[in-house]
Structure prediction request, 285 residues.
Amino acid sequence: MATPAELISPRSPRVAAARRLARRNFRTKERRFIAEGPQAVREAVAHRGPDGPTLIELFATVEAAERYTEIIDAARASGVRVHYAADEVLAEVSQTVTPQGLVGVCRFLDTPFEEILGDRPRLVAVLAHVRDPGNAGTVLRCADAAGADAVILTDASVDLYNPKSVRASVGSLFHLPVAVGVPVEQAVAGLRAAGVRILAADGAGKDDLDAELDAGTMGGPSAWVFGNEAWGLPEETRALADAVVRVPIHGKAESLNLATAAAVCLYASARAQRAPGGCRSVTPS
Prediction:
C-alpha cells in the first residue's frame, strides 16, 4: 500500500490535465472525460472500446484504495496507471463537493449512429433539446434499466460527458451504446428506415399511453423522443413522430418531470415488447 511519500503532487502535469477535463472544450479536444466514485469507476474498468480499455488513469486516496481493493487490482490488471492522491488533490480533480476517493480519466465511448442502426435496435431513447445534464444522465440510467438498446443525444442536447451527466447515469453510461450530436431529423429518418416506430413524449400529446398499450400498438421496435425540461418538444419535432403520446395523469399532479416520464414510457414499451407477440418475445437469431 502507498505511503504519504508516494502521493502524487498537486502540481503534477497529470493532475493539471485531469482538472482541465471539467471544461467541455478540453474534453472534446482530448476525447477524455472524468468518472467519479466507486460505481462509475468499477464500470469504467470493465468497459473496453475499439481503442482498448476505456479507463486510462485512476486517482485514489489511500483510504479509498484500501476500501476498494478489487477496483484498484482490476485497474492495474488492465494496465491502468493508478495514482495515490491526498484529499486536497482529489477535490481539485473531482467535480463534487464531497469526492468519494476515486476519480478516473476515461476515453470517450460514444458509438457512431450508423453502427446503432446496423444493430437493428428495438428500444431507443432519443434526447432532443435536453439541456440539463442531470436529467440527461438520469434518462440514460432509466433507458439502461428498461433494457433499451441505445440512447441518442441530438446536436441540440447537453454534452454527454458533462460531469453531472456522468454522475447521474450512475455507471449506465458504460452499459449501452450512446450516439451524440445527431440532428433530430437524421435520427428520426434513420430509425424509421430501420423499422423503428417514432413516439414523441409530450404532456399535450393527442395519443394516450394507456390507450396505446390497450390497442397493442407498442409491441414493435420503438424510439421515444424526449424534449426540453421546461418547454417540451417544439412543433417541428412533434411533426416528425408517428404518434405524440402523453402519460395520463390520474391524480392531481400538474405534470411529471422529464426523467419520471421517460421511465414510464420506456418501461411501457419494454413490457409490451416482452409480452407474447412483442418484438422481444422471439429468440434472436
